[in-house]
Design brief:
The complex is a heterodimer of chains A (137) and B (111). In chain A, 31% of the residues lie in helices and 29% in strands. With 137 residues, chain A is α+β, with helices and mostly antiparallel strands. In chain A, helix 1 runs antiparallel to helix 2 and helix 2 packs antiparallel against helix 3. In chain B, 34% of the residues lie in helices and 27% in strands. The chains are: A alpha+beta (137), B alpha/beta (111). Chains A and B meet through helix 2 and helix 3 of A and helix 2 and helix 3 of B.
Chain lengths: 137, 111
């Protein structure tokens, strides 16, 4: 069965929180019933980590405006997230898990374990993030 | 997310939540565990039977609770994680740090 579609929401902090991304994905999965449980769980975990990272670190206190688009095709699931926040200083190269008793610092390494591609570009005053996971059988 | 606390026996308590353990609810879990330990129950089980999602913020709250409980001479264990929680524990190498049991009642049954 061919299954493809794009879904877009906007997120405006501080009024919106990360639960709007969970709610969006519930709609995406409901419209994409052939996406496997493993792909759903893996992609949702990665996207929540990415979105949380943006909400937590890109906001300098004045709030940020984000546009999140999730695309499902027969071969992959992709998310593109743009935000008006401050530039990210995150290092995407060679991230490893922190020591066992660390209370933070696992998000980016976790995303990298769950998706095939993660990209970040700063263009003008906008941050552009993209993650992509190839669908498993 | 609201957390409930149930005493299982002297010094042992079950903390239960429902829904998503993410950056919105992680702080509440930290506070609930801290106040439960301060109230004299340092052996904590966080029952995840009704938790359908955890992220690294939620994981950080569990680690915080583990440290708080151990500093008070106790421990923090988890029960009934779903497949998503197991995946996150596995990918973050936290399976050996956060001991998992099938039910809250079994977490300290052999201590």
């Amino acid at each position: 069965m061919t299954e493809s579609g794009e879904y877009t929401i906007t997120i405006a902090t501080p009024n919106d929180d990360i639960n709007v991304v969970h709610d969006m994905l519930e709609d995406v999965w409901a419209s994409s019933p052939t996406v496997s449980a493993t792909d759903r769980v893996s992609f949702e975990t990665a996207l929540i980590e990415l979105s949380s990272n943006v909400i937590r670190h890109a906001d300098d206190g004045s709030g940020i405006h984000c546009v999140l688009t999730v695309g499902v095709s027969d071969s992959r699931i992709e998310a593109r997230l743009t935000d008006t926040g401050v530039a990210s200083e995150v290092d995407l190269v060679g991230r490893t898990m922190p020591e066992a008793f660390a209370e933070s610092g696992r998000g980016i390494a976790l995303i990298q374990a769950l998706v095939d591609e993660i990209e970040y570009v700063r263009s003008g005053s906008i941050n552009h993030w993209r993650i992509s996971r190839s669908r498993t059988a | 997310m609201e957390f409930t606390v149930q005493q299982l026996g002297q010094g042992t308590a079950v903390v239960r939540g429902e829904g998503r353990l993410n950056m919105v609810s992680a702080g509440e879990l930290r506070e609930t565990v801290a106040s439960t330990v301060a109230g004299g129950s340092a052996r904590i089980v966080v029952d995840l039977a009704a938790v359908d999602f955890i992220d690294s913020s939620g994981l950080g709250a569990l680690v915080n609770g583990l440290k708080t409980a151990r500093q008070a001479g106790g421990d923090l264990r988890i029960s009934a994680p779903n497949e998503q929680v197991k995946l996150v524990l596995q990918l973050t190498n936290m399976e050996r740090v956060l001991s998992s049991y099938p039910t809250a009642e079994s977490a300290y049954a052999n201590d």
